[in-house]
């Protein structure tokens, strides 16, 4: 195993297997994954900071086995911030988990070197004392049931945006980096977020029964867009803005302009790779930055 020592913002790291191809279809290597996360860090880190991290690791690339990892690895450097939080329903019967918190570039590079391609975070942060704070984000995950695509998700997003606007909430759109779309809004804790999101999803299903479904049952979803409100459960996570996805190509969960949502006619229009995402940041800055 070839090891390369590097110093990142004052922290010493050892990078390994930089030439390993993690996206075989396009020859995208671990070095390129690390490079992407390093370059996108200025806009990515604000969305990770303070949020307990869950990753999907692909040590042998996107065509090989993967695993979710919540607990910080045993070899995690001491300078990486960790927080110990309760873990109800843990598959490993743990009462609590030591989550890493990606507050800085060295931590981000550490995880990129672990082939942690996908970065997932909850809709809440932890305080300086490591305790969970109230949720600050509301999320709706729009998932198309074939033959529906992200084009249909865009139509539903526009209806959902209007409803959220009526509720006094400003929605921001991003691709999931896979096949769907996600809307985020700042959350003021007016009520329990999952119950609130479910109520809105059910309301839109009632208004648009041919296009929208609010239940998870796959039998109800062909040709419709499932508004997944359950991502607001404190125990759940959603892929972070600017995170890579483990698809055939290194696609990215990419913030969008509303104009792009309004005018989308083909799914390919909203597929963005790592380089596309970087180009968009250079042109638009962080479209997910809240005013």
UniProtKB/TrEMBL annotation:
Superkingdom classification of source: Bacteria
Pfam families: LigD_Prim-Pol
Domain DNA ligase D polymerase: 29-288
Protein name, per record: Bifunctional non-homologous end joining protein LigD
